[in-house]
C-alpha cells in the first residue's frame, strides 16, 4: 500500500464523513437509497478498492451516528433505522433531557462501532472455512434468504407469492434487452434494477399522484413543524464511556455484540427486539429510555458494520440485509465488481481491516466530536437550507443516469417498471430485503423453472 | 408561507410541494443525464460529468426551492 493510496483513503473517509453527517441529519433519508448509488458510482469510476471501502465505512459510521440526532433534537428520525428510537427519545424529551438523548445515542453508536469491528473479524474467521460451500450454493441461499425474509414480514403470503413473478419481471427484462441487442449477451443489468427497487416507494407514491382523484384525496399538509431545542455548549472533548453509566455501556456493548452475531437478520427488527428485551426489566421510565436508546443505537451501528464486513471478509457474496442493501456496491457493481470478483477477492483480510479501521476512526473522530458539540447548529443548518425536493431530485437524477448507462434509453422505462412494481409490493408489506434477494436469485431460480 | 400553506404532501418522511419536486427532479435529471450524454471522451468520463451534473442540479434546486419546514427555537424546554 503506497502513500498515494493511503492519502486517497484519508481524503475519501473525510469526504464520506462530512457528506453523510449532513445527509444523516436530513429527515427520513433511506440508508440504501442514499448510500448504495454513491458507492456504486465510485466503484464504476474505477477508484481503488481500498478507497471505496474506507469511504463506505466512514460514510456508514457517520450516517449512523447522525441519523439519531434529529430524533433527539426535533423528534423526527433521520433515517429508517432511527425510527425505533423515537419513542424512547420522546420520554427523555418529556423529562426535559434532549441533550442527554444526543449524548447517550452518539456514545452508544461509538460503542457499537468499537465492538462491531473486532467482532466482525472474529465471526468472519469462524465462517471462513465454510465459505467455498456457501458460495457454491449462492443461488439456493439467496432463494432461501428471500423465503426466510418473506416469513419475517408483515404480509407473509403476498411476499412468498411474489418471489417467482418478481424474478420473472427481472429476468424477463434482461432477456428482452439481450433479444433487442441493447446489451451484449455476456452483460447483465444489475445496478439500475437494484436502484429501481430502492426508489420503489417514492416512485409509486409519485405515480399515484399522477391520478387526479388520488391527488385530490391525498392529505394536504402545511410546513413541517420542527422545534429545535437550544442545547448547552460542551466544554472539552466528551468521553463516550463517561457519558454512559456502567450499566448503559454494558448493555450497549452486549446489544452491539448480539447485533454482530445476528448480522444476517434485519437490523431494524433486531434493534426493536433486542433493544426492548435488554431494557424491559427497568422500572424507572427515564433510566429505561436512556438505556434503550444507547443500546439500540449501538446495536444498529454494529448490525450495519458487521452486516457489511462479515460477508465481505468471509464469503464475497452479499448475504445480509446490509450487504444486499446499502453495501451492495462493494459486492456487485458490474463490470468493476461482480460476485466472482469484488473487494473480497481483491483485498486480503489485513487490507480490509486497515481500510475499515481507517474509515471508522476518521468518521468517529470527525462526526462524534462535531455532533456532540454542534448537534443543534448542524441540524438547524440542514433543516433550513436543504429542501427535501432537492434530495429526492438528486436521487432521481442519479437513478435515471445509471439506468441509461446500464442499457440505454429503454432501460429508463424498464427501471420505472421495476420501481412501480416494487413500490406497490413495498406498500403492501413486502420487505425490501425479499426483493433484493430475488434480484440476486432470479437467474438461478428461472434456470430451475424453465 | 401564508396562502401557500396546506398545499404539501408527505413523501419519504418529509413534506414537499409537488410543483417544486417536479422542478427539482427535472433539473437534477437533465443535468445528470445531459452531462452523461454530452460528455466527451471514454468511460469513466461521462459518469464523472454526469455525477457533477447531478450535484449541480441538487445545488441549483436547493437555491431555487425553499424547504417546507417551520423551525422554531425553544430555549430551556424544561
TrEMBL record, chain A:
Every DUF112 domain range: 11-431
Transmembrane segments annotated in the record for this chain: 6-26, 38-62, 68-86, 107-128, 134-152, 157-177, 189-210, 352-371, 391-424, 430-449
Superkingdom, taxonomy of origin: Bacteria
Keywords: Membrane, Transmembrane, Transmembrane helix
Protein's name according to its UniProt entry: DUF112 domain-containing protein
Organism: Virgibacillus natechei
UniProtKB/TrEMBL annotation, chain B:
Transmembrane segments: 21-39, 45-65
Origin organism lineage: Bacteria, Bacillati, Bacillota, Bacilli, Bacillales
Protein name per the record: Heme ABC transporter
Keywords: Membrane, Transmembrane, Transmembrane helix
Amino acid at each position: 500500500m503506497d502513500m498515494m493510496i493511503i492519502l486517497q483513503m484519508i481524503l475519501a473517509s473525510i469526504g464520506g464523513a462530512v457528506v453523510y453527517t449532513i445527509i444523516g441529519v436530513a429527515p427520513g433519508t433511506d440508508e440504501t437509497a442514499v448510500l448504495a448509488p454513491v458507492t456504486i458510482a465510485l466503484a464504476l469510476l474505477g477508484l481503488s478498492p481500498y478507497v471505496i471501502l474506507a469511504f463506505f465505512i466512514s460514510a456508514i459510521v457517520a450516517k449512523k451516528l447522525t441519523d439519531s440526532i434529529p430524533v433527539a433534537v426535533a423528534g423526527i428520525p433521520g433515517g429508517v433505522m432511527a425510527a425505533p428510537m423515537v419513542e424512547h427519545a420522546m420520554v427523555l424529551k418529556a423529562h426535559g433531557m434532549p441533550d442527554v438523548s444526543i449524548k447517550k445515542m452518539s456514545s452508544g453508536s461509538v460503542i457499537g462501532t468499537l465492538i462491531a469491528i473486532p467482532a466482525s473479524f472474529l465471526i468472519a474467521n469462524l465462517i471462513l472455512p465454510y465459505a467455498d460451500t456457501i458460495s457454491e450454493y449462492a443461488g439456493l441461499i439467496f432463494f432461501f434468504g428471500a423465503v426466510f425474509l418473506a416469513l419475517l414480514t408483515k404480509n407473509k403470503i403476498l411476499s412468498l407469492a411474489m418471489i417467482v413473478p418478481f424474478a420473472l419481471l427481472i429476468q424477463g427484462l434482461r432477456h428482452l434487452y439481450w433479444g433487442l441487442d441493447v446489451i451484449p449477451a455476456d452483460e447483465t443489468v444489475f445496478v439500475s434494477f437494484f436502484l429501481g427497487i430502492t426508489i420503489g416507494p417514492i416512485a409509486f407514491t409519485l405515480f399515484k399522484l399522477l391520478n387526479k382523484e388520488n391527488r385530490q384525496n391525498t392529505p394536504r399538509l402545511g410546513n413541517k413543524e420542527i422545534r429545535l431545542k437550544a442545547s448547552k455548549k460542551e466544554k472539552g472533548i466528551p468521553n463516550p464511556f463517561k457519558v454512559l453509566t456502567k450499566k448503559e455501556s454494558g448493555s450497549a456493548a452486549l446489544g452491539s455484540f448480539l447485533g454482530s452475531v445476528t448480522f444476517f437478520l434485519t437490523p431494524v427488527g433486531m434493534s426493536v427486539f433486542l433493544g426492548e428485551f435488554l431494557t424491559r426489566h427497568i422500572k424507572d421510565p427515564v433510566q429505561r429510555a436512556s438505556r434503550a436508546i444507547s443500546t439500540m443505537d449501538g446495536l444498529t451501528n454494529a448490525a450495519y458494520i458487521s452486516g457489511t464486513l462479515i460477508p465481505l471478509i468471509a464469503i464475497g457474496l452479499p448475504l445480509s440485509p446490509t450487504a444486499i442493501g446499502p453495501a451492495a456496491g462493494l459486492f456487485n457493481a458490474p463490470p468493476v465488481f461482480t460476485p466472482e470478483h469484488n473487494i473480497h477477492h481483491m483485498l486480503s483480510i489485513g487490507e480490509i481491516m486497515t481500510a475499515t479501521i481507517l474509515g471508522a476512526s476518521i468518521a468517529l473522530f470527525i462526526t462524534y466530536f462535531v455532533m456532540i458539540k454542534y448537534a443543534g447548529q448542524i441540524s438547524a443548518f440542514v433543516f433550513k437550507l436543504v429542501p427535501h425536493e432537492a434530495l429526492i431530485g438528486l436521487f432521481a437524477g442519479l437513478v435515471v443516469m445509471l439506468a441509461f448507462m446500464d442499457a440505454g434509453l429503454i432501460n429508463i422505462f424498464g427501471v420505472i417498471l421495476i420501481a412501480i412494481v416494487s413500490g406497490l409490493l413495498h406498500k403492501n408489506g413486502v420487505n425490501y430485503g425479499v426483493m433484493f434477494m430475488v434480484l440476486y436469485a432470479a437467474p438461478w431460480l428461472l434456470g430451475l423453472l424453465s | 408561507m401564508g396562502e401557500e400553506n396546506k398545499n404539501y404532501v408527505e413523501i419519504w418522511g418529509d413534506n414537499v410541494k409537488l410543483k417544486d419536486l417536479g422542478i427539482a427532479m427535472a433539473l437534477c435529471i437533465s443535468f445528470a443525464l445531459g452531462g452523461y450524454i454530452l460528455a466527451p471522451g471514454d468511460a469513466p468520463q461521462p459518469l464523472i460529468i454526469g455525477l457533477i451534473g447531478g450535484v449541480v442540479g441538487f445545488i441549483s434546486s436547493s437555491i431555487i426551492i425553499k424547504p417546507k419546514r417551520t423551525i422554531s427555537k425553544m430555549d430551556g424546554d424544561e
